[in-house]
UniProtKB/TrEMBL annotation:
The keyword Heme does not apply. This is All-trans retinoic acid-induced differentiation factor. The chain crosses the membrane at residues 205-223. It comes from Cyprinodon variegatus. One of its GO terms (biological process) is positive regulation of osteoblast differentiation. Residues 1-22 form the signal peptide. InterPro entries: ATRAID. PANTHER family: ALL-TRANS RETINOIC ACID-INDUCED DIFFERENTIATION FACTOR. Keywords: Membrane, Signal, Transmembrane, Transmembrane helix.
Amino acid sequence: MKASLAWTEIVALIIILKVCFNASHQLTGLQVCSLCAGLVRNNSEVDRFCSSSAGRIDRRCCLSNDNSSDPERIIGLDLSNCSLTTVEDLSGASEVLMVDLSLNPIVNISEKVFLGFLDLNYVFLPEDIGCPGGNVSWQQVTVEKGRRFCKGQTNMCNQTRQMSMSCPENSLCCPDGPGFFQCKCSESYHGYKCLRQGDFPPLKVFGPLAGSTVLISFLLWVTQRRKAKSL
């Protein structure tokens, strides 16, 4: 019995640590705006974009000022001239329209930095750094004055120049950021490669998961309570 409990505790600990690890490596909007000290630079691309969009400046971010939408939505991110050498996570600004990473000694940008950035339409980079997803992911790519400008994110599911994206039968191709796409099952299909037809059975899928979660939580509570009493 003790060995069984110990094994359960180890499994639960691994799950908890994994969840905490993933959460700690995803930046919130507040953290993204503070990746660089100061405010959006005066007369920068993001500053002008923010003014024309009637946004408001918050540190290095331009926030949407539209009361009918999310008031905390980041629409512009100015991380230019911040001495950045790598860029690994901007997940807190996934709804951003413009990102400026120019004037930085960047040597590496993670391939998945802009995964899920569906609204991103303007990116400024050091001239020796390629556009996210490659030139094929943008309608216009220009290099001048020491920086690269990527404009107009293209739909990878409608690509006819260099790539042709295909999804399994009974699924649809959906864009997922510059250079990315995902295949979503058509209505009434689900499962591996969308081969199963009919409504998705949430009870069968999430029922055992919920039950095991409750069981593990109960076992942890019992073991921790017993340890507390022994102390």
